[in-house]
Each structure stands twice: as C-alpha cells, then as structure tokens.
Specification:
Elements lengths: L1 E3 L5 H5 L8 E3 L2 E6 L2 E8 L2 E5 L3 H7 L6 H6 L5 H9 L10 H10 L5 H15 L4 E2 L2 E2 L6 H5 L3 H5 L6 H14 L12 H9 L6 H11 L10 H10 L9 H11 L4 H14 L10
Antiparallel strand pairs: 1-5, 2-3, 3-4, 4-5, 6-7
C-alpha cells in the first residue's frame, strides 16, 4: 500500500531517539507498530508499507501534524533555527503507551546503541515474532507477559538494575493499578505526577512518555544533551543556573510545541555535532 507523506523524513524520524526497534530492511525499515509487524519505505513524498492500514501509518508517524505551522511557532533564535533546518521532516511519533513507558524505563543512563540492544532482546525473547520482507520484526512484550517474568529473566536482557523497576511497573500496569489508557484524560500536571509514582520513572522519563505516548507536545524532556545545549546556547555566561530554573525556562520559552523544539535540539546536537553527550532523551 502507499500514501502521500509530504514534509516527512522517515529515516530521520526513526533515528531521532524516540524509538529503538526499527531495523534497516532492504530499501526500507522493518519494525512493529503495537502487535503488528510492519515494513515501510519512503520514495520521495510517498510511503510504501505493509502489515497495517494507512490510518495506522498516518497516526503512528503523526502525518496529520501541521509541521510547517509547528516550526513557525518556534522562538526565533539561532540555536533553534539551526536545529529546525537540520531536522526537516522529523515528526514526533505516536507510540503505544506501555511500550513507550517500558522502553524509557530501560533507557536510564544508557546510550542509544545500548537501548536498542535491550529493546531487541526483550522483543526477541518475550514478544510476538513477525517477519516482514524476510526481516524480523518482533513486537514488544505486553505488560502481562513481562509481569510473569523474574528479575533474572530481565537482567539477562542487559537491563541491570532497571530490571527491578521494569518488573514492578509491568505488574502495576498488568493489574490495572496503573491504567495507562485512562490516564490520557488527566491534566499535564496530574499525568506527570502519576507517571513519576511508577518505579523507574523520574521527571525526564515522565516527560518522554508524555511527549511520545500521550502527545502532550509541550512536554520538554531534559537530559544530558539538552541540558548542555540549553546552558551553551541560552545561558552561555551564567554558571549558576539550576535545573529548576532550566525547567521553568523551557516551559515558558518554547511554548505549546516545546516537545518538537526539544526533539530538534536533541537530534541536531546528537547528529549534527553541536555538542557532546552520552544519554538518550
């Protein structure tokens, strides 16, 4: 199947630190959207895909976001202008909530390559197996599947101390004590607070989940990369700016599409050589 995808860069979007399981497969990529194995490739302004419907592809890759309008809403400053120009066509993916939450719990203090290895191990060992275009595309294990595992099972997937947190959170989600779908109706403040109550979830992970799984586009995750960008580009001569002051600045300065601004600054820093760092968002 095919559909129009103007103002979209598939490769750049998949390589921007939002998701960690898509693999190059022929002229496109193999991965999973929820429980379905998917193949997708880009040819100019069109996407060719199999495994899911056009509606699923449109929703997952946020092809309905008015990207030009979002970019025009950014503050006019040199750092963000450079990042926007570097990241043309990059969109915020709408991720399944449990999968996004679990992935970012495993991401703590890990480089992108390591997060990909963990994701691959979890999917291969405990997810549903799929093949598309002769490429493996396993789905992420459900919370009930993870909840039945043991901490050693998860440590064998290279989670380290994160295994305990992922297991505890999976059991809360599987039991219904943490109803991720129902939480979609909560205010931003309440949603962030609920997420931060989960084992392994701090402010950064909560903001990642809010941005990538709940489409709260104001959410602005601050990690090593972004903190360095903010200090270098926005507070170059101020040594005593606190983390609290940085968060307050981001909430007001970047506006209603701050999540897009963050993703562009992050991707530009990581891939464009703007500033050093080690961690995923």
């Amino acid at each position: 199947m095919e559909l129009e995808a103007p103002d979209f860069d598939l490769s750049r979007t998949l390589d921007s630190g939002q998701v960690f399981h898509w693999e190059k497969c022929g002229d496109g990529f193999a991965g999973a959207i929820g429980p379905r194995g998917v193949f997708v490739e880009q040819r100019g302004k069109r996407l060719r895909f199999s495994g899911v419907t056009a509606e699923t592809i449109t929703s997952y890759f946020a092809l309905d976001h008015q990207l030009a309008k979002i970019c025009r809403s950014f503050p006019d400053d040199p750092a963000l202008t450079a990042a926007r120009d570097f990241c043309q066509g990059l969109r915020i993916i709408r991720q399944p909530r449990w999968e996004c939450l679990a992935t970012f719990i495993t991401s703590s203090m890990k480089q992108v390559a390591h997060i990909r290895q963990i994701s691959r191990a979890l999917r291969t060992r405990y997810g549903q197996r799929h093949r598309v275009k002769e490429c493996a595309a396993p789905s992420f294990p459900t919370p009930s599947r993870v909840a039945k595992l043991t901490e050693p099972d998860l440590r064998a997937c290279a989670l380290g101390y994160r295994a305990k947190n992922l297991l505890a959170t999976a059991r809360l989600v599987a039991s219904g004590d943490a109803d991720l779908e129902q939480w979609s109706t909560l205010s931003e403040e309440t949603l962030r607070a609920r997420l931060c109550e989960l084992p392994g979830v701090g402010a950064k992970v909560a903001n990642c989940v809010m941005l990538f799984a709940y489409e709260r586009l104001r959410a602005f995750p601050i990690d090593v990369w972004i903190e360095r960008v903010l200090r270098q580009k926005y507070f170059p001569n101020q040594q005593k700016v606190t983390a609290t002051q940085l968060r307050a600045f981001c909430e007001t300065y970047f506006g209603e599409h701050g999540g897009y601004a963050q993703q562009y600054l992050f991707h530009h820093a990581r891939k464009g050589g703007a500033t050093p760092g080690t961690a995923a968002p």
